[in-house]
């Protein structure tokens, strides 16, 4: 008997051991067949209900036969074995059925915008508009319930086993310099706005100054980054900060946390996770979040080609950081069509402005390429060996500046893996989870829009690598940081750093390196002067982590009420217009672009 509610069982529970019992079930009508039986559904499963046909139960029969699908009903009846031959081995409750005695339609369902059954395809926009109906699907029920269990285990691990304190921090705050764009919230003070924090970063550091030396929070964060396919303007982090800790301490904590909260049905994960420097990640995989579930690493072949009289090779190698690199696509000849190869080359050109050349390994082991006429037999076999080429492999080769070549090949590596898999070659085990720490990031990177200026690779509070501290003042571009990212199957699922806890150094970074107005952060800078302890932390992106664990195509599939990729709530229609009267207390007026004014009129 379930506590607090009037049902005796859920719809997924009954087995042959229950035969003879009188039960009361509540659920939604999944199917109804010709007034003979129906299938009742709740989060746990499905139960077959037999509608009585005798005169005495005419009322119940009428009620259940007329109720539309997805109406919510109560049935009370006796659990019986299904007649021999009618068992359904695919259904956990498939041995039994419930013979109804009494029933009640608690609320009828009007015509549905889509069928609830998981196998029915529906557009994402429609699913989002009727999210409360979509939530009835087994898949979303599973995702949200698993998410809740994982978070519960994380709380247990952090608070009960390791003495962390769960502290809530404000979501109405002020602008943080550097990093993502923040949402503004108007205030009643003329011209003044709050910002919604992109993370509780400042507060968690201030908690360390306040002596709460192990903090965590399931924290809502906000970033106004416009439309991106797999980002949400609001998202959730498992946010962590500790005093008197080093990088290894945070890493071991997170490994323990993930191991403890990892769902049993997804196998087990081994710790410690492997680690790779930023430089290695870029050189071998062309990205700071390598998917290490498969090989196809980038190979530097500059030395094989250096002495040869090939114009584009010589050109590339004559520049500083000039290089020639390649990736080898296994069985590319068999699995990739010509148009696939063309689209790979086209994508390197359009995304990275990078020319790419192919080399094919023929069945007799010889190479087919525009390059071969420049290569002697010895050089050909050296190249085959360096790239570990087999018959029918395709090599993609790029020459140019190190970072550009690596980024282009890194992207082609992933694109060609997708193409190979679409053609039937299994490269990445869908049930494998490859965690990886990426460490030793540079502290600063050139700004994309203006490479002469620097921005923080992580955020402005990240401490320099202890052995590079003096470089901070002489050549900040060369400083490595104490920033670490956690990567899972090629996705960044977390990032953090050891922080600067010295006010002077923090002021130097803000003012002299990043050219930010440190006045906005005067409270933090001042706090660092009051005996701030050394500290560091990390944040895990909960939505992305859960979506990878349940193998969901989008983070929206693990969020109960997600925003569309344009940042809209399609169900409640947010953001929405407000009247000029509602804006008055905020001293704000909308200046309508002409075309929108027209659109609003119609
Ligand atoms: N606040 C950082 C972020 O949101 C994480 C951290 O450094 O702890 O990326």
UniProtKB/TrEMBL annotation:
Pfam families associated with the record: GAD (PF02938), tRNA-synt_2 (PF00152), tRNA_anti-codon (PF01336)
InterPro entries in the cross-refs: Aa-tRNA-synt_II, aa-tRNA-synth_II, aa-tRNA-synth_II/BPL/LPL, Asp-tRNA-ligase_1, Asp-tRNA-ligase_1_N, Asp/Asn-tRNA-synth_IIb, AspRS_core, GAD-like_sf
GO MF entries: aspartate-tRNA ligase activity; ATP binding; nucleic acid binding
GO terms for biological process, alphabetical: aspartyl-tRNA aminoacylation
Annotated GO CC locations: mitochondrion
Keywords from the named record: Aminoacyl-tRNA synthetase, ATP-binding, Ligase, Nucleotide-binding, Protein biosynthesis
Domain Aminoacyl-transfer RNA synthetases class-II family profile per the UniProt entry, residue ranges: 144-562
Entry similarity comment: Belongs to the class-II aminoacyl-tRNA synthetase family. Type 1 subfamily.
Protein's name in the database: Aminoacyl-transfer RNA synthetases class-II family profile domain-containing protein
């Amino acid at each position: 008997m379930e506590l607090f509610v009037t049902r005796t069982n859920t719809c997924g529970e009954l087995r042959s051991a229950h035969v003879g019992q009188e039960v009361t079930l509540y659920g939604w009508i999944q199917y109804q067949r010709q007034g003979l039986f129906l299938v009742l559904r709740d989060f746990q499963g499905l139960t077959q209900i037999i509608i009585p046909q005798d005169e005495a139960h005419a009322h119940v029969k009428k009620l259940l036969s007329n109720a539309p699908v997805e109406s919510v009903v109560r049935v009370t009846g006796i659990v019986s074995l299904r007649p021999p031959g009618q068992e359904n081995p695919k259904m956990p409750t498939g041995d039994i059925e419930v013979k109804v005695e009494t029933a009640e339609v608690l609320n009828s369902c009007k015509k549905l915008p889509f069928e609830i059954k998981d196998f029915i395809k529906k557009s994402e926009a429609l699913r989002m508009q009727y999210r409360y109906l979509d939530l009835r699907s087994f898949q979303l029920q599973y995702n949200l319930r698993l998410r809740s269990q994982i978070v519960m285990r994380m709380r247990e691990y952090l608070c009960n086993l390791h003495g962390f304190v769960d502290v809530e921090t404000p979501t109405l705050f002020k602008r943080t310099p550097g990093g993502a764009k923040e949402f503004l919230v108007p205030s009643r003070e003329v011209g003044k706005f709050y910002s919604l924090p992109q993370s509780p970063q400042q507060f968690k550091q201030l908690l360390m100054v306040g002596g709460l030396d192990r903090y965590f929070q399931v924290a809502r964060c906000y970033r106004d980054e416009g439309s991106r396919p797999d980002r949400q303007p609001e998202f959730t982090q498992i946010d962590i900060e500790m005093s008197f800790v080093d990088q290894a301490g945070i890493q071991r904590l997170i490994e323990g946390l993930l191991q403890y909260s990892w769902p049993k049905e997804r196998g087990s994960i081994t710790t410690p996770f492997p680690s790779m420097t930023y430089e290695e990640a870029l050189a071998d995989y062309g990205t700071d979040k390598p998917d290490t579930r498969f090989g196809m690493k980038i190979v530097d072949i500059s030395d094989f080609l250096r002495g040869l009289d090939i114009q584009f090779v010589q050109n590339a190698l004559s520049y500083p950081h000039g290089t020639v690199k390649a990736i080898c696509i296994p069985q590319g000849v068999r699995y990739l069509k010509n148009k696939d190869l063309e689209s790979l080359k086209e994508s390197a050109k359009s995304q990275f402005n990078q020319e790419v050349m192919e080399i094919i390994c023929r069945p007799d082991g010889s190479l087919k390429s525009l390059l071969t006429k420049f290569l002697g037999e010895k050089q050909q076999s050296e190249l085959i060996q360096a790239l570990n080429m087999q018959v029918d492999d395709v090599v993609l080769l790029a020459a140019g500046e190190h970072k550009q070549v690596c980024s282009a090949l890194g992207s082609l590596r992933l694109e060609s893996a997708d193409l190979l898999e679409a053609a039937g070659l299994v490269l990445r085990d869908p049930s494998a989870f490859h965690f990886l720490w990426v460490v030793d990031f540079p502290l600063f990177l050139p700004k994309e829009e203006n490479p002469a200026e620097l921005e923080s690779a992580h955020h402005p509070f990240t401490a320099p690598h202890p052995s590079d501290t003096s470089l901070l003042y002489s050549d900040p571009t060369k400083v490595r940081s104490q920033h670490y990212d956690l990567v899972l199957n090629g996705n960044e699922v977390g990032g953090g750093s050891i922080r600067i806890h010295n006010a002077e150094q923090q002021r130097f970074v803000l003012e002299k390196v990043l050219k930010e107005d440190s006045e906005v952060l005067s409270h933090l800078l001042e706090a660092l002067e009051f005996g701030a302890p050394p500290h560091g932390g990390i944040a895990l992106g909960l939505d992305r982590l859960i979506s990878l664990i349940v193998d969901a195509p989008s983070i929206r599939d693990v969020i109960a009420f997600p925003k569309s990729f344009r940042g809209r709530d399609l169900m409640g229609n947010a953001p929405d217009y407000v009247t000029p009267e509602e804006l008055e207390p905020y001293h704000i007026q909308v200046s309508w672009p002409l075309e929108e004014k027209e659109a609003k009129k119609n």
